[in-house]
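Let's sit down with a protein and look at its sequence and fold side by side. Go ahead whenever you are ready, and we will take it from there.
>
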Amino acid sequence: RPAQPPCRGPTGWLEEIGLAWLALGSCAGLYARILAGRDRLDLPAFAAALRQTGLSVLPAATLVAAALGLILGSQAESLFNDLGLPRLPVLTVGFAVVLELVPILVGILVAGRAGVALAVRQAGLTVSGEMDGLVVTGVDPIRFTLGPVLLAMLLMSFALTVWVGLSTCAALALWLWGRAGVPPGLFLEALRQS
């Protein structure tokens, strides 16, 4: 018996990647149809997903941002005292906060809270047979179960990244102003340059 090639047909490579890529492709198709005006977004599910993804993560994200700002402020203060250069620590911390730390922390928070909730919801729909019911009736389950939630997670991840970045910078500025004597104008100028 001859061996079967690992990827058959034009979509064989996609099937080999797995269900996640198929679901992501379905969501991208749904979003394209929505933008073209040929489909609609399930607004109640989208609003619930925004609330679950963003508002449930907001208190933890704010607390993490404040703690991160205070920790970075303490480190920047020690650099300021050792070197006597207020602009250098602020520039370095500005790069670290905006480009590296905040997106990673937001990703962890959103994946930990909203990602797990989404996985539990999808598993519950599969176990209860509701997913099979949608498939049997000819309804694409991605449109109602995954599409609104994925879009909400993407939008709220961006919004939370902006919020956590601003909160971290505010806590950092307060620490440096109160403890190291760095004026807020100098901090804002250095942050703008970074």
Q: What stands out?
A: The chain is about 85% helix and 0% strand. The two ends are 64 Å apart (CA to CA). Helices lie at 12-17, 19-36, 43-55, 58-83, 87-128, 130-136, 141-180, 184-193.
